[in-house]
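pinging the channel bc i need a second pair of eyes. not urgent but kinda urgent?? the chain im working w is below, pasted from the shared doc
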Amino acid sequence: MQRVLTKPYTACLISILAVIAVCFTGISSRDLWTPDEPRVAAISLEMAQDGNFIIPHLAGEPFVEKPPLYFAASALMLKSLGTITGKTTAIRLTTVLFGLGVLLITFLIARIFGGSEAGILAMIILATMEGFVKNFHWIRVDAALAFFVIASIWCFVKVYYEDKLEFCPLGGLFLAGSFLSKGLIGPVFVAIPWSGLFIIRLLQHKHNKINIKRFVFYHLASLLIFAGISGLWMLLLYNKGGKSIWDEWFWVNQVGRLTGTAHKGHIKPGRPFYYIIKLIEYGMPWTPLIIFWLVSRTIGFIKSKSLSRKNLFLCIWGIGSILFLTMAATKRGMYFFPALPVFAIMAAASLKPESPEWFKKYSDFWILICFVIITSIIFFPLFAIFLPDTLPGYINEFMRTFGYYNFFLCAGLIIFIVLIFRHRRKFAPEYLMAAVTSLLYLSILGYPVQIIDTKKGMESDIRNFVLKIPESRRARIAGVNLSETMSGCFYYYSGWKIPKIRDKKRINDILSGLDGTYDSILMDRRRAVKNGSELFEVPYHIIAKIMTGHKRRLFWVEGLKP
């Protein structure tokens, strides 16, 4: 029995508008933040400037940790809107558009399983999950990965649930997109739910006859499209970059990251509960609904010894994705993101045909928490006079300003209070919860994020540091221990491609004045540089230094003259 609301269309419209507002809020009000944004933004900018869409480059050096699709999309956005919106906003807009695509495809999948209302619920639940808001406000290639993964899954759901085999070639195209976004992990994310669809179809083959030749033909077409597009890029990569670039991309960054043999960051073997904890975090505030769905379906299976076709598919998709990520040696919260839509669909399914009684109480509790936080943010400038004087002056001044953003938040809160007290019975609790959660994100992405940006932003630090270095000397400076983040910052903010030197003998030759190309060094270390370090065997002195916004010390050094 389907639930009937007094004003379902009004509730849906308010929720949809609220989550769209969240998607676009904050994309232009802050600087690039570590650890990923400076590097990805710099690669996108360089691709827009040099037109090399095959091999991504970071400050003049090949960067083949990731395939080029996200960088290419950002580069095109930079060319189209960069002069209008600014570079950083244009690149973040690329992420937002991928995010809107993920929401749309999640709606389409959930609608196949439970109708339009289930689709809308899944979409607004996903859009207000902490993991979604966090990842789709950062410049990261995982935005493209998530879109192409969910789009490919949708195509195969259409094939297996609605017998529309003509969606197979489109599924292969999206599958190639997932590969070109982040490599092998994309097709694996698709293979898990696809295997569930295939197994379920085999189990039902006796009751639902299919045209085997037509079935095989369309799947081969899908596979050929995927292999053709992916293979073409790999061939171009090998031809343009050579064997060393190919080995770096495939063996080190693809195979090595999965097996843990690569000497890269985020290698954390073991930790079996890592992604379960991330699911709890990323799923908030809807995590209780996800747990409720999993527990209720488990109990139902124990009692009846069977699962519906839809529930079995969702279990294989969700649990299989967690198991795959757990087995991989590389672990990082954002790697879980492409699997998040299935848990939003589970949460939405928990609300049909009626919201559980416990959820109504939980939503009231959550709404109360949101009211307290939003009110505190709105009126925080009134209490900022009690802040300690030890805080930096620019932070004190910023936090004591009652600006237009506070006014709009206050207006939004008043409107929501009116909805609560005058029209509460007309709206289901999940729509109210989605709306107030959206308002919470809007409040956090405005005032508090700008306060954090005053500390994390690096543009002014980098530009001021570069100004200390005479332009005539920059071509003769080499980078030592210069991180990808800092290489990206220098290129993005000043257009300076700093060459990196890794050979210890040449480093000391530079400081001794024996190198014909470079005469000084720019060093990036988290700790102070001391004479007699493991790298330097000759005396030197520090010409200039700076502490960047993310606690990295930069030193410009040269050898002492005899």
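so Residues 212-259 form the longest helix (48 residues). and The chain has three domains: 11-258+277-349, 374-455, 460-559. — does that match what u expected or am i reading it wrong
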